[in-house]
Backbone:
């Protein structure tokens, strides 16, 4: 089946290129701060100290690389699943420009030290307003297109797209409610424990609705497209979707176990967090069973392994994460290096793996060509896999060690180890982590080269045709 | 220029309307049941447990040793 109009692929392409650009910035800064952990002389005050670079790293990758890819791929998927071009294509193009302006201003303001001191909500109030305007534009284009769709049935990816747009809007606006003092300084509307509770309701759901639901939208779309196998169970997709969405927004309090937050709120947060294993594994099982009907796709289609490894790390992440929320586990690993190990299994193993595979699928399609080199894609795969595993595993080991040293007491109740004794033991693991980061970065360079050459090949082909 | 459109049947074919895997259903309901227990056991208003009491308790154990 085909039609005689053309989709707006330029906007999709623009988002993908922007996403890769911000990804390079974020990854380089990530490497830099990983070195700062064991070589303090790599701090260059005032702009390039750990405190400022870290937030550029997290914002640059979560919102530059992550959201950039999400915007582009959402537009790509939405057009195809609704069987129509985007509503308001010019607005979507404006969205692309505004996105890049917002990320650039975000990076500059964070380098300058302007910071609300709320994790993943660091941007000061004028930029928050820009972000909200950008998100409203995004919502108008997505909802307009879905309302005017030409395919009545809404595939599961569209549901994940809808919840991403709605949830991020609510979370972002509520947690960024602040009273401006000057143009570059504001104070959170909530105070004390309330501020912490709202912040981690936001913080955890930024993970939920930037790193989980949009990536599941991609997974459910590109896995059947790449393998040619329909998803194992539509019913399982839908039940997992609704139970995930229902449970996610209650879970933020697991970041505040053993704090002054009332006990009952902590407990409620932990209960919903543990429950999340079920819907998360609904998608994992659905993915495995889909490919299980023909495992040879792991060899014959180069993208299948990206999706299967991606969903595997999603599965591990969604067991590890809820377990961390339990009081008995939290008291050992909270505030240790285990936490960055956990986060990076998700971001490097699940989010980047899946998004990169989606980009591998999309770019040849919109350039009307084939991938430049499957071999380079395979090299990319193994490098990012090994790099990520080194990162996660070293941080788990040193995290447990750190927690155990902090908790160790002498018979009289005094601490067995000083803070410095614990800190020094991290050094070899931090150095290994930098090595893991370098391996991951090399893998990403292979990816970028492959995408660039595919685009070049596509351009040459279209010139030849003309 | 023409666009190839997706067919919904490629994503959700009729023969793939599988029912929910039994293992997954056990996980789903098991976690709900566990949640009811944990909510009861660790909410001060229900069971009397509190973070503060648990801490005091942990220090006492240390004294005995």
Residues:
């Amino acid at each position: 089946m085909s039609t005689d109009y053309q989709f707006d692929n330029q906007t999709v392409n623009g988002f993908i290129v922007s996403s890769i650009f911000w990804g390079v910035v974020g990854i380089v800064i990530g490497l830099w701060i990983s070195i700062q952990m064991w070589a303090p002389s790599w701090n260059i005050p005032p702009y390039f100290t750990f405190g400022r670079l870290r937030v550029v790293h997290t914002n640059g990758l979560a919102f530059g690389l992550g959201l950039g890819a999400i915007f582009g791929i959402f537009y790509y998927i939405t057009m195809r699943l609704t069987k129509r071009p985007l509503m308001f294509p010019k607005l979507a193009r404006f969205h692309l420009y505004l996105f890049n302006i917002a990320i650039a201003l975000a990076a500059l303001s964070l380098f300058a030290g302007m910071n609300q001191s709320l994790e993943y909500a660091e941007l000061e109030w004028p930029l928050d307003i820009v972000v909200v305007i950008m998100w409203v534009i995004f919502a108008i284009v997505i909802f307009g297109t879905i309302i005017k769709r030409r395919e009545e049935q809404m595939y599961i990816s569209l549901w994940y797209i809808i919840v991403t747009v709605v949830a991020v809007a609510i979370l972002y606006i509520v947690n960024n409610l602040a009273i401006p003092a000057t143009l570059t300084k504001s104070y959170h509307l909530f105070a004390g424990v309330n501020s912490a509770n709202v912040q981690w309701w936001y913080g955890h759901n930024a993970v939920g609705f930037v790193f989980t639901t949009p990536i599941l939208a991609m997974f459910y779309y590109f896995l059947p497209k790449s393998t040619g196998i329909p998803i194992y169970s539509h019913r399982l997709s839908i039940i997992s979707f609704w139970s995930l969405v229902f449970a996610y927004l209650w879970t933020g309090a697991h970041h505040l176990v053993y704090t002054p937050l009332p006990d009952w709120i902590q407990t409620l947060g932990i209960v919903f967090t543990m429950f999340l294993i079920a819907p998360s594994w609904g998608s994992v099982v659905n993915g495995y069973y889909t490919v299980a009907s023909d495992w040879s796709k792991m060899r014959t289609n180069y993208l299948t392994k990206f999706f299967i490894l991606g969903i595997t790390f999603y599965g591990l992440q969604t067991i590890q994460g809820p377990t961390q929320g339990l009081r008995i586990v939290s008291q050992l690993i909270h505030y240790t290096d285990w936490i960055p190990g956990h986060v990076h299994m998700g971001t490097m193993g699940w989010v980047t793996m899946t998004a990169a595979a989606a980009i591998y699928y999309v770019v040849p399609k919109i350039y009307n060509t084939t991938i430049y080199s499957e071999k380079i894609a395979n090299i990319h795969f193994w490098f990012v896999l090994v790099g990520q595993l080194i990162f996660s595993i070293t941080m788990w080991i040193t995290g447990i060690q750190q927690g155990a040293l902090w908790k160790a007491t002498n018979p009289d109740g005094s601490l067995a180890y000083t803070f410095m004794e614990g800190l020094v033991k991290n050094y070899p693991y931090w150095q290994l982590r930098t090595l893991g980061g370098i391996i991951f970065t090399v893998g990403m360079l292979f990816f970028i080269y492959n995408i660039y050459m595919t685009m070049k090949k596509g351009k040459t082909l279209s010139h030849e045709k003309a | 220029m023409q666009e190839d459109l997706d067919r919904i049947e490629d994503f959700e074919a009729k023969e793939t309307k599988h029912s929910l895997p039994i293992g997954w259903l056990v996980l789903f309901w098991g976690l709900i049941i566990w949640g009811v227990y944990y909510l009861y056991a660790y909410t001060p208003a229900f069971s009397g447990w509190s973070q503060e009491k648990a801490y005091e308790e942990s220090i006492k154990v240390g004294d005995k040793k």
In short: The two ends of chain B are 81 Å apart (CA to CA). The longest strand of chain B covers residues 3-4.
